[in-house]
Specification:
CATH superfamily: Aldolase class I
Strand order of the largest sheet: 7-8-9-6-5-4-3-2-1-10-11-12
Shape: globular
CATH topology: TIM Barrel
Low-confidence stretches: none
Bound molecules: S-adenosylmethionine, iron/sulfur cluster
Number of helices: 12
Oligomer: single chain
Structural class: alpha/beta
Distance between the termini: 29 Å
Length: 329
C-alpha cells in the first residue's frame, strides 16, 4: 500500500474523523430535534475491532491525525478501552476527541497518559440556563468540570461554540474572555443545516459577523497565519493567554487545503461533510474483503472528492436533513 494519497486536486489525505457512535446524551437544538433522531440498530454500527482495522488501513494510506467523534463518544460502552488500543497504533501523531463533556470528566486525567493529544469541548454558552435551553439537558456543571479537568491534565483544549442568531450572540464576548487566563482556543463555528430537520432560516450569523462582533469589543485582535489543512482562522487578543478561532463551516472558505475525510458510525466514508457518502466500508469490512481491497476502494473513492463543499452539496442526491450526530461532526 502506498503512502501519501492525494485527491484529483492534489490535496493529501492526512486526517481521519471517525464517529464512534450516533448516540448522544444531549439534544442540542442545532444538531437534532427535541425528540432525538432514529438511532441505527446497534449491529449496523462499526465495532471497535472494525474501527481499529480501518484506522490501521488509513494510517498506511498516509493518515497521521485521528479524531474520534460522534454522537457523543463517551456514551459508547468501553470507549476508554477502545482509546487505549487505538493510541497504540503506530503512525498517528495526533489523536483528538470531540466531546460535549457531559460524562467525560472522570476519564480526562488518564487521557494524556495514553496519548490523547487534544480535545474539542462543545460549549455554546457560559450561562447554565441557556446551556439547558440549547442542549435540552441539564449537564452544564459536568461540562465545566470537564473543561477544568482538561486544563488540569495539560491536554490541548479547544472549545467549540456554534453561533446562532437569536440564541447565543450575546455569549460571543463572554466566551472569548475564557482565553484571557486559560490556555484554550475558543472557536466560533457557523451554524450548518445538519440539525436532523433541514435548513432553518436563521443560518445567517456568518464568519464576517462573528469577527465584527469580536472586533467591536476586543480591539486588539490580530489574525494569526492560517495553517493549511485546518478550518479555523485564528486570532490573538493582546494580553490573552489563549486564542480565538472562527470556522466558516457554512461559508466553506477553507476547502482548497482540505486534508480530511470522515467515516460515519455506520462505516460510510464521506469525502466532505456535505456529500452523501462515497463508499460503504462496513460492507467491505464484513464481506471478506482484504485490507488491500479496502485500501484500493478508499483510494478510488478519495479520487472522487470534489473541489469544495458547495460542489459536494450541489451534487447530493437528496437535500440535507441528517443530524450531525449521525454524520460525525
Ligand atoms: N457530541 C460531541 C460534541 O458535541 O462535541 C461530538 C459530536 S458533535 C456532532 C461535533 C461538533 O459538531 C460539536 O462541536 C457540535 O457543536 C458541532 N455541530 C453539531 N451540529 C452542528 C450544526 N448544525 N452546525 C455547526 N456545528 C454543529
Ligand atoms: Fe449530541 Fe454533540 Fe449533537 Fe449536541 S452536538 S446533540 S452533544 S452529538
Amino acid at each position: 500500500m502506498s503512502n501519501f494519497l492525494t485527491d484529483s486536486f492534489g490535496r493529501p489525505l492526512e486526517y481521519l474523523r471517525l464517529a464512534v457512535t450516533d448516540r448522544c446524551n444531549l439534544r442540542c437544538f442545532y444538531c437534532m430535534p427535541a425528540e432525538g433522531i432514529d438511532y441505527v440498530p446497534r449491529k449496523e454500527l462499526l465495532t471497535y475491532e472494525e474501527m481499529l482495522r480501518l484506522t490501521r488501513i488509513f494510517v498506511q494510506l498516509g493518515v497521521n491525525k485521528l479524531r474520534l467523534t460522534g454522537g457523543e463518544p463517551f456514551v459508547r460502552k468501553n470507549f476508554y478501552g477502545f482509546l487505549k488500543r487505538v493510541t497504540k497504533i503506530e503512525g498517528l501523531d495526533k489523536i483528538a476527541i470531540t466531546t460535549n463533556g457531559a460524562v467525560a470528566s472522570r476519564h480526562i486525567p488518564f487521557l494524556k497518559e495514553i496519548g490523547i493529544t487534544s480535545i474539542n469541548l462543545s460549549l455554546d454558552t457560559l450561562n447554565k440556563d441557556k446551556f439547558t435551553e440549547i442542549t435540552r439537558r441539564d449537564f452544564f456543571d459536568q461540562a465545566m468540570e470537564t473543561y477544568q479537568a482538561i486544563l488540569a491534565a495539560g491536554i490541548k483544549l479547544s472549545v467549540n461554540m456554534v453561533v446562532m442568531q437569536g440564541k447565543n450572540i450575546e455569549d460571543i464576548i463572554p466566551m472569548a474572555m475564557l482565553t484571557k487566563n486559560d490556555d484554550v482556543t475558543v472557536r466560533y463555528i457557523e451554524e450548518m443545516p445538519f440539525n436532523g430537520q433541514g435548513q432553518r432560516n436563521s443560518l445567517h450569523f456568518n464568519h464576517q459577523k462573528i469577527r465584527a462582533t469580536l472586533e467591536a469589543e476586543l480591539h486588539e485582535l490580530s489574525p494569526l497565519p492560517f495553517t493549511p489543512g485546518t478550518t479555523a482562522q485564528e486570532y490573538q487578543v493582546k494580553g490573552h493567554k489563549g486564542k480565538i478561532g472562527i470556522i466558516a463551516a457554512h461559508s466553506r472558505t477553507f476547502c482548497s487545503s482540505c486534508n480530511r475525510l470522515r467515516v460515519t458510525a455506520t462505516g460510510h466514508m464521506k469525502n466532505c461533510l456535505y456529500d452523501n457518502g462515497v463508499l460503504n466500508l462496513k460492507r467491505m469490512l464484513t464481506d471478506g474483503s482484504s485490507d488491500k481491497m479496502i485500501c484500493e476502494a478508499i483510494k478510488a473513492a478519495y479520487q472522487t472528492k470534489l473541489k469544495d463543499g458547495h460542489q459536494a452539496e450541489a451534487q447530493r442526491l437528496k437535500a440535507i436533513s441528517e443530524s450531525m450526530s449521525s454524520i460525525g461532526g
